[in-house]
Amino acid sequence: MNDSSWGAPPQAGYWGPSDQGPVxxxxxxxxxxxxxxxxxxxxxxxxxxxxxxxxxQDDDRGAARLSGPLFRDxxxxxxxxxxxxxxxxxxxxxxxxxxxxxxxxxxxxxxPMPDVPPPAPAPQKKSAGRDLGAAIGVxxxxxxxxxxxxxxxxxxxxxxxxxxxxxxxxxxxxxxQERKGIKAPLVPLAVGGAAMVVAGYVRGAEGxxxxxxxxxxxxxVWRMTEPPEGYLKDVTAGVFAAFYVPxxxxxxxxxxxxxxxxxxxxxxxxxxxxxxxxxxxxxWRFGTHKLAPRISPGKTREGLFGAVSFxxxxxxxxxxFLIDDxxxxxxxxxxxxxxxxxTLGDLGESMIKRDLGIKDMGTLLPGHGGIMDRLDSLLPxxxxxxxxxxxxxxxx
Length: 396
Prior knowledge:
Elements: H1 35-39, H2 132-152, H3 154-180, H4 186-223, H5 231-256, H6 261-286, E1 290-292, E2 296-300, H7 301-321, H8 328-356, H9 372-375, H10 378-393
Antiparallel strand pairs: 1-2
Helix pairs in contact: 2-3, 3-4, 3-5, 4-5, 5-6, 5-10, 6-7, 6-8, 6-10, 7-8, 8-10
């Protein structure tokens, strides 16, 4: 090879060994070769304008053109089908193999993901919903005051009833005014309520009825000192409050007038508390079926069964050992009646609180709420116990 010709410009026309003209397809570029060497040179194949995909692995016709796009994103490439490959063998590979989607394409019919069940929620520990320590402490304190006043001086217990009535009326009328704009007159209600309890203890049932009538009249007159707007709803709420709190509480004073009045009142209190305790204990542990979900979602049928069972057992024991001339079977009836009336009383106050949109009537008693939240089951139970004791053992 002539070293002086390395890198020389390409010849316009190259003449091969024959004189017939330039060889077609010869490479126009490259160094000049001597004639003997040129006879052994093969012409380079022409690169096709479009790349062929899916050819044989030894076939270089599928290579990309130098003038083609440098990046894949510039043009959309056709999909690659593995079945067009020479190495595809239908005997070893299924014929329904899905075709590859073009780059960036979204499958039209994606396969649904298998349903995976959500993780199970962590078990939650049941909560009483109140401060049990404070509730027990307040309950023990109230029990000491009640028992001490009940068995030392009966008149002192009448005073305890009157104070509870006045505080309960204050809570009820305050919530009515705050939540509903109802202004039930508190002054005549408080005075008339206390008088009602004292009249029931001193004059019996007749005195209680007379005091109730005078209290209702005082509510009507007292409200006349204000503008007439809302008069009807205010006096209606006042008369309702007079009946609901002090009049029902008067039956506790009526029980106290008997010779064994202290034991009758103690039986009444024990049965009501035991009924509430049985409903709470059984309902909290086994309750699954709601009793009245629209009124009180926490009460269950299992809780009602617990209230009835506990109250009947306690009633049989109390009537047998605490009440003069009482019998165990009478205690079973008394316990059943107390469980029913206490549950209805609790539901009744729950209905009032739901209408007012509140949870408790007050905050005076930590762990319990207000006075009315403790009187809810006692108030409707008092006339039931008084009546059954009169029927079983007399007024004494």
